[in-house]
Design goal:
Blueprint: H1 4-8, H2 13-102
Length: 103
């Protein structure tokens, strides 16, 4: 910390030079950091664009698959109904055969 006597004193040229050198060094570091951030930001934008394309493709594929699943569910439902109808007919045939054997 500066004492009261040093407050009234003008900084030496060496002190000013030291502070300016530190400012220059810090500024250079900040410029390098900003340049790196610009590159990273551009890469992130490119990755985001690529990801959006992939998401769009996957959404279309998902839509298609949902449609196929719905169609398969409908087919399965019809097949179950058909199988139930066949079982009922077989039960009727068995019942008729049993009745005929009793006659």
């Amino acid at each position: 910390m500066a004492s009261e006597d040093s407050i009234d004193e003008a900084p030496s040229l060496a002190d000013v030079w030291k502070v300016l050198t530190e400012i220059k060094s810090n500024t250079e570091k900040l410029v390098n950091d900003v340049d790196l951030l610009k590159v990273t930001y551009k890469e992130l934008q490119e990755n985001l664009a690529s990801t959006k394309v992939q998401v769009d493709i996957l959404m279309e594929e998902n839509k298609s698959l949902k449609s196929k699943v719905k169609s398969l569910e409908d087919d399965l439902s019809k097949s179950k109904a058909h199988a139930k109808e066949i079982e009922q007919r077989l039960d009727n045939v068995e019942e008729c055969c049993t009745l005929e054997s009793l006659i």
